[in-house]
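Q: For a teaching handout, I want to show students what a protein-ligand complex looks like in token form. Below are the inputs, and the small molecule is zinc ion. Please produce the holo structure.
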Amino acid sequence: MSDDPLLAELKERLAEVDDLGGVGGLLSWDQQTCMPPAGAATRAAQRATVHKLAHELFTHDRVGELLEQLAPLEESLPYDSDEAGMLRVTRRAYDKARRVPASLAAEMSHASSEAHEAWVEAREASDFALFRPHLERGLELRQRYIDCFPPAENPYDILLDDYEEGMTAAEATAVFDELKASLVPLIDAVVERADTVDDSFLHGTFPRERQEWLVEEVLQSFGFDRASWRLDTVIHPFALSLGPGDVRITTRFHEDYLPTALFGAMHECGHGLYEAGIDPRLARTGIGHATSLSIHESQSRMWENLVGRSRPFWQRFFPDLARSFPDTFGGMDAEAFYRGVNKVQPSLIRIEADEATYNLHIVLRFELEQDVTAGRLAIADLPEAWNQKMRDYLGIEVPDDAHGVLQDVHWSFGFGYFPTYSLGNVIAGQLWDRIRVDIPDIDERIGRAELADLREWLREHVHRHGAKYTMRELLERVVGTGLDPQPYARSLQAKLADIYGL
Ligand code: ZN
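A: Here is the structure, written as tokens, with zinc ion included.
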């Protein structure tokens, strides 16, 4: 098939678009990890230019002609073939991208870079007013973006589709309602028994070098490979891949609170493993990337929570932890640590939230995003709306904007991303049920830090396909159903019932 000259021409173009995407990724990685702050204006221009070039190259009339001429070939190919996948995904992306003028795409990219810098400053100063004009500008650009598409039942669906193809706000709401129905009473029951679990030892003095050593031990067991990975320090952790053999992950260290760096690094490593597991044959073809953010998040949440917060994992790693911080953990055992890192308590910061309340942080953001997009809530009123929902859902008072509405980086890039986090939890639960069947001694393996079989299972069933299948197709292939919150809710229920003696 691949000797078709039209297909070869399309592949060449897609390879160049991917290359520009990689360059854009590198500029963004550099901006977040090591660029001096004064470089921000130049960087915003550079990113916008690269973005515009990629957009123009991809949305060129010639791509449309090639797709049209290749339609008969596409139909003749097996659905599962790489070429059919490439044509399918390219066609859909092309139809979307063609609707958006290059000037608007560049403006959005430029505004995001500026908004990111403003967010860093605003968060440091805990001053929403510094970020507000950028959010208003971002919203206005998103409204123009939404207007490029046929009207949706809910305008938010158009934004959500960029992160989770085909998902609608109504579907996500249904999943979240089901999640809330089981999580809210569970959280209430556990909070009543808060004294059962002590996690005070997580606050203390944890010198950075020793945290770095521990993080490295843990990440190596996960599959971090020095030859093709980097770990750097940032304000808001993220992971990205610049292509086969180049995975960049990040974390942040708090010397007075242990979980931030440790579990944050596990989380980003899960993202990195997904990127690293994509079949290198798919690189530079337009499908050599993750299929959706929910699937991405299912991988990070799985490594962070289902592996990293499991009892067998800490039976294996607690001795390393106690050696690193003998003053804190010298007289403790693995079981106490396991219980502590699974303590459920409403808190202010999403990325440090426990497995159960985490989803309420997401629901709060999802609702605010929809209100703002629909024009029911003014940007100026976001901080108060945020604080009110924190009272309603988690029963806590937000002391300042840095610990409230300014805590996340995402709104500098737009709206529509947050639901994918909780959908990722849900998918991780579904995959984990399947993994338990296929690797029945998974707990014992985790207890020996033998994680190669788990990595291989994920690579075989999820990672290697890149974007060839949609999230729904992937779920259907691997677990045989659509999105189902029950496995996740059940496993959390069982874990907390055991820890809290419910
Ligand atoms: Zn993540």
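A: Two things your students might notice: Strands lie at 229-233, 239-241, 247-251. The longest strand covers residues 229-233.
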